[in-house]
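Appendix B. Chain record.
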Amino acid sequence: MDAQSPWADRAGEFLVRPMQPEDIPAVMAIDRESFPNPWPENTYWYELRENRTAHLLVIQTRESGEVVGVAGYWLVVDEAHISTFAVRPGWRRGGVGAVLLDGMLRQAAGLGARSATLEVRAGNPSAQALYRKFGFQIVGRRKGYYKDNGEDALLMTADKLSEWISSSTRKEQA
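Structure tokens predicted for this chain:
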């Protein structure tokens, strides 16, 4: 994390940890608040129990233990494909997403990911800005990707994750 970032100071307020089955109700509530087409419960069960490439994380407050965000990725060879990412609306724009994304990318890099890829709605500049802070760049567009309204998705990729993490760790220690 960049020590000059407004969210670096907030990291101690939260715990990023692997998602557990008992988190599914809270995660589904976050999904319903965040997405027009949230994942059904059986998708979370599948990702947790059967999909060997899946890694699901939650972020919770240290004070109350409330789960306020969820992130997931599939690790395929040396790429982390971010499958889901959401923060409860009342917790957005305060650095929670940055703490969660940082934790997810660090975990993925530790497991051998060299790059990360995701799709983001073309009409979601806030999410795009967050991803850019972490080195993601737009590399393509998927026309009509989102089925609810036919909106395009921007394909964003961050290469050289280990170098980015090393660089951000040095900034934290400075």
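Further analysis of this model is presented in Appendix C.
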